[in-house]
Each structure stands twice: as structure tokens, then as C-alpha cells.
């Protein structure tokens, strides 16, 4: 009976050890993934097309935004411009990473197209409302003149 208990204890210890090893591996993987993610973000932020990417993204965010929000977004873009000018990077320049170059160019193009697609219905709705306002104003002027006569 003693050996059965000992076997159970060994099994529990082995199971606990396996759980601990799995946890350590998961933490190492997470740490490694975070390092890779940080490195990718740094490469993107230091890429020559980053200012264009940031501008295209902010332009998308500004569609339909209030003037106050648009001003905040412009401030963010200006801060990004200053940060990008102050960032001296020797390892990342155009052509150093063709995949990143292609990604950045394609993503910029997609954002520009997305902004255009976002703007179209907003511009159409604004135009419609402006036309309605003009028609109502004209109608009110006609009615007020007829009552004034």
C-alpha cells in the first residue's frame, strides 16, 4: 500500500512539474512575442513611409469628425512628424526590408482609398443637407415676402 501512495505522490509531483514547465514556456513565449512585436513596431515607426501612413490614418479618423477632434488629430500628426524627424535610424531605410517597404506602401494606399470611400457618403449627405437648407431658406423667404405684401 505504501508504494501505491508513493506512486501517486510521484505522479502528482510530475504533474505539478509539467504545469510549472508549461507556465515558464508560456511566459518565455509571451516575452519573446512582446519583443518581436516591439521590434516590428520600431521598424514601422522608423520606416520612411511612416509619416505618410500616419497622415493617411489620421485623414481617415478626421472624416466626419468635429473641428475640435480634427484639431486634436492634427496635433497628434504634428507630434508624429517631430518624433520621426528626431529619430535617427541607421538600420531601417528604404530598400533594407522589401517586405516592409511593400507592406507600408500597400497599407498607405489602402488607407487613402478607405478615406475616399468614407468621405463619399459623408460628402453626399452634407451636400444633400446643404441643398435642403437652401431650399427651406428660399421657401421661408418666399412665404415671408408674401405675408409682408
From TrEMBL:
Residues 90-141 form the KNOX2 domain. It is found in: Nucleus. It comes from Citrus clementina. Residues 38-82 form the KNOX1 domain. It comes from the Eukaryota. GO terms for molecular function: DNA binding. This is KNOX2 domain-containing protein. InterPro entries: KNOX1, KNOX2. Pfam families: KNOX1, KNOX2. GO terms for cellular component: nucleus. Keywords: Nucleus. The keyword Magnesium does not apply.
Amino acid at each position: 500500500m505504501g508504494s501505491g501512495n508513493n506512486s501517486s505522490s510521484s505522479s502528482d509531483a510530475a504533474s505539478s512539474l509539467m504545469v510549472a514547465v508549461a507556465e515558464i514556456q508560456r511566459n518565455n513565449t509571451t516575452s519573446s512575442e512582446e519583443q518581436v512585436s516591439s521590434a516590428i513596431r520600431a521598424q514601422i515607426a522608423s520606416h520612411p513611409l511612416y509619416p505618410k501612413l500616419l497622415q493617411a490614418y489620421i485623414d481617415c479618423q478626421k472624416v466626419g469628425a468635429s473641428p475640435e477632434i480634427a484639431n486634436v488629430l492634427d496635433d497628434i500628426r504634428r507630434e508624429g512628424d517631430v518624433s520621426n524627424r528626431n529619430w535617427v535610424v541607421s538600420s531601417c531605410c528604404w530598400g533594407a526590408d522589401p517586405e516592409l517597404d511593400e507592406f507600408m506602401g500597400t497599407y498607405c494606399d489602402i488607407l487613402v482609398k478607405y478615406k475616399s470611400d468614407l468621405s463619399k457618403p459623408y460628402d453626399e449627405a452634407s451636400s444633400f443637407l446643404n441643398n435642403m437648407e437652401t431650399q427651406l431658406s428660399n421657401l421661408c423667404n418666399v412665404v415671408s415676402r408674401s405675408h409682408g405684401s
